[in-house]
TrEMBL record:
GO terms for molecular function: hydrolase activity. Residues 38-171 form the Nudix hydrolase domain. It comes from Edaphobacter modestus. This is GDP-mannose pyrophosphatase. Pfam families: NUDIX (PF00293). CDD domains: NUDIX_ADPRase_Ndx2.
């Protein structure tokens, strides 16, 4: 390892997040501190619908407190538990936020979210064969708006800065690579 942990202490915890401060030693012998945000695994889902009119994706629009604005993104989230079955988590988050059930879920890959400061796995799923029902959002998600947009419109939103969620952008890029190669990355 190029960095060795000398000591670690938790400095903050709530039901969603814990923050720790580690004293570290680098390969060159210099010591320092590293702040790490630990979060349980999450999933992000690309709900893709193919119709005679074209291809569409479903986005969630909601207010994001940390950046003070409403933004559109793919459905995503976690259950504040380390012991999740990735597909169950993805199905649950999709149903909770959108009311959509998927006939097929394909795990495209597992990514890390902002690993310069955070330790959180993010399972990326493609959802196909969609049927619609009633959403059941958490209290924090009371303002969710479900949006159906064409793939062309979604990609325009990516390029003009309307979609700023890096996880949604990464998931779409992963999906495009998966399409080109014809098989899941993992």
């Amino acid at each position: 390892m190029t960095i060795r942990t000398i000591s670690s202490r938790e400095v903050y915890r709530n039901p969603w997040t814990s923050v720790r401060e580690d004293v570290i030693e680098r390969a060159n012998g210099q010591r320092g501190i590293y702040g790490v945000v630990d979060k349980d695994p999450a999933s992000i889902i690309i709900p893709l619908e193919k119709t005679e009119e074209g291809e569409f994706v479903y986005l969630i629009e909601q207010f994001r407190y940390t950046v003070g604005g409403r933004f559109a993104e793919f459905p995503q989230g976690g259950w504040e538990r380390a012991d999740v079955v990735p597909e169950e988590l993805a199905r649950g988050e999709l149903r909770e936020e959108t009311g959509i059930e998927a006939e097929r879920l394909t795990l495209l890959s597992t990514l890390q979210i902002a690993y310069g400061v955070m330790n959180q796995k993010h399972y990326v799923f493609l959802a196909e064969g969609l049927t619609h029902g009633e959403a059941d959002p958490d209290a924090e998600e009371h303002d969710l708006v479900l949006r159906r947009v064409s793939v062309a419109e979604f990609e325009r939103m990516l390029l003009n800065g309307e979609i700023v969620d890096n996880c949604s952008v990464a998931a779409w890029g992963l999906y495009k690579v998966w399409l080109e190669h014809g098989r899941p990355a993992r």
